[in-house]
Amino acid sequence: MTDAEVFPAPVVLWSQPEDQRAGKPLLVLLHGYGANEQDLLSLADMLPADFAVASVRAPMAMGPGFTWFPLTASIDYSLDAVKKASGYVLDWIDTIKDGHSSVTLLGFSMGMAMATTLLRQRPADFAAVVGLSGFAVDAGGDPTFRDAELDGTVPMFWGRDQQDPVITPDKIEFTMGWVRKHVKLTKVLYTGMWHGINQQEVGHVSEFLTHEVLNK
């Protein structure tokens, strides 16, 4: 039994019925701490209609919502728990990816930690990554994180507010160092957004997805 098998089967909400999404590029939405699969699905209406959009529920109950892995008050985490959650998502993606022309990841907050982890574990599998108000995990040289294979060619959008009160400075510092070395980065800073997503950012994400995924 793998670690991923101790979790229930993923709960996934789709932007379109099954008969309308075959062969389309897939955009996987990964929500933040304490949210659920409904949290980001509204973005689908504001992003390019060419995508089949799937919003995945994290596997662990946390208050009224769900979490990908446990967090402490200072946003500390267990790398093993991160890897267990990533295995859960990768196993699901493996069951559906053959029906789509490409797979792109979009994660908010902790969901960005998940999206970047999936890319680092499967460097050749994803067309692009979008990270919103989040961070990348410090893998400490763990061999399942194949950073050496990420040579700066995978497009990544990273949007955040410098006044974000949630993501701690050490997380930002690590993420900044990681993105500069390993992805083709589009980085945009916003003001007055705090730990959230605003209309301007969604417009930028839509442009990024059109340019970096649909027009390739």
Instruction: Strand order, main sheet: write it out.
Output: 1-3-2-6-7-8-9
First-to-last CA distance: 39 Å
Low-confidence stretches: 1-5
Q: Describe the biggest sheet? A: 7 strands, mixed
The ordered string of helix (H) and strand (E) elements is EEEEEHEHEEHEH
Taken as a percent bin, the fraction of beta residues is: 15-25%
* Nearest-integer average pLDDT: 94
User: Count the strands?
Assistant: 9
State the helix count: 4
Amount of helix: 25-40%
> Structural class, from secondary structure content?
alpha/beta
**Computed Rg:** 16 Å
Shape: globular
Protein architecture, described:
This protein is 28% helix and 20% strand. The chain is built from 4 helices and 9 strands, in the order βββββαβαββαβα. The strands form 2 sheets. The chain has a 7-stranded mixed beta sheet, with helices on both faces. It has a two-stranded antiparallel sheet with strand order 4-5. With 216 residues, it is α/β, with parallel strands linked by helices.
